[in-house]
Recover the amino acids of this structure.
């Protein structure tokens, strides 16, 4: 992929030393002293971003990418060819906007080529640069963050790791269709922000809801084009490598499960893991966990079913529910390949091209049961409000 190498530094040889024969580090096509890797045929491209100047309360997290790689490369490869490349590290530009431009350009080129950018940062405001990469694609997209609190703040202030979502929501031209957050902790969250999310018909899932039934998070991730993971959403005991981690949060295995859900999504085209700080890590615990999360994400990509309900519906079972109270009809589709469920939300006449990617809404069997009981599923109603 011509031109991208100007943004990246090669990786040090120490990352590839003393690896077992079938370790990922021996099969990955990486940017090293021999040159920039060929991306033809790749499915996933790792991008390290050494930027933390807009981090709030986690200075030093720019040091994370190579520490994560040191554990990722030691994990064993998969049963099938993964098409994995590592482009190396984007170093900080003269300004953070220069870094954002490099990330935006690299992600845009990869996405256009059908390659998933997998970003390891750095601070979470890099998500804004990732989002900007979709501007040239001329399509509305969905974004999911996994975070202990929503990073929505004062839009008049300089962009930071704690207000970047405001910049995304208010960005012009606007191409954000839906935003969801998974794992927020209510006592850490300003109530007015949750009220704003409701008014915008965005979705939030509290930590207790995730730990109570993690399967309910899968449809949110299945609907995402971008997933941005703040590792401080994981409890400190499992992941101490962030200055913002607390006593409560996701367990390590839950973080890995969410990462796998993200990978399985046919819709997802980019992902990022942020806020890891080597200065706070204890015995490499966090770097090791994030490496396993990335491994689970890649494993999810390999398990994709390509069953998003577009085109022919011959491989789906169709269910039609009439809600007499609201006079709405809800059409469900169940995939014969994966047993996953979708709802068909009608869009206004004349808006098909703009919203075609969003009217099939991932859901669960429980949403179907709710509809059979004459109750309107929340996902259907919120999507319908955004469409009209």
């Amino acid at each position: 992929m011509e031109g991208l190498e100007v943004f990246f530094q090669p990786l040090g040889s120490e990352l590839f030393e003393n690896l077992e024969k079938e370790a990922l580090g021996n099969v990955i096509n990486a940017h090293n002293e021999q040159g920039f890797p060929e991306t033809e045929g790749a499915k996933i491209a790792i991008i390290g971003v050494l930027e933390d100047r807009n981090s709030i309360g986690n200075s030093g997290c720019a040091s994370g990418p190579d520490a994560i790689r040191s554990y990722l490369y030691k994990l064993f490869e998969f049963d099938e060819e993964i098409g994995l490349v590592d482009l190396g590290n984007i170093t900080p530009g003269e300004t953070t906007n220069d870094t954002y431009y490099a990330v935006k350009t690299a992600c845009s080129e990869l996405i256009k080529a059908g390659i998933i950018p997998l970003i390891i940062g750095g601070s979470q405001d890099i998500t804004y640069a990732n989002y900007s990469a979709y501007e040239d694609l001329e399509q509305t997209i969905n974004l999911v963050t996994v975070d202990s609190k929503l990073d929505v703040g004062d839009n008049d202030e300089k962009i930071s790791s704690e207000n970047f979502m405001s910049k995304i929501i208010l960005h012009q031209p606007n191409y954000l269709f839906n935003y969801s957050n998974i794992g927020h902790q209510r006592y850490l969250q300003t109530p007015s922000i949750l009220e704003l999310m409701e008014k915008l018909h965005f979705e939030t899932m509290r930590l207790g809801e995730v730990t109570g039934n993690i399967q309910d998070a899968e449809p949110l991730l299945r609907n995402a084009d971008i997933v941005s993971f703040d590792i401080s959403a994981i409890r400190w005991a499992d992941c101490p490598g962030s200055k913002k981690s607390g006593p409560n949060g996701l367990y390590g295995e839950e973080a890995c499960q969410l990462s796998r859900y993200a990978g399985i999504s046919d819709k997802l085209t980019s992902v990022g893991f942020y806020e890891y700080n080597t200065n706070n890590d204890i015995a490499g615990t966090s770097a090791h966990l994030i490496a396993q999360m990335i491994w689970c994400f890649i494993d999810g990509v390999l398990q994709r079913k390509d069953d998003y309900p577009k085109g022919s519906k011959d491989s789906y079972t169709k269910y039609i529910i009439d809600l007499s109270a609201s006079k709405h009809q809800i059409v469900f589709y169940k995939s014969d390949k994966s047993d996953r469920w979708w709802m068909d939300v009608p869009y206004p006449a004349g808006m098909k091209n703009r919203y075609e990617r969003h009217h099939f809404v991932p859901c669960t069997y429980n949403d179907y049961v709710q509809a059979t009981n004459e109750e309107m599923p929340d996902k259907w109603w919120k999507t319908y409000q955004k469409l009209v």
Remarks:
- The chain has a mean pLDDT of 94.
- The CA atoms of residues 54 and 159 lie 7 Å apart.
- The chain is about 30% helix and 20% strand.
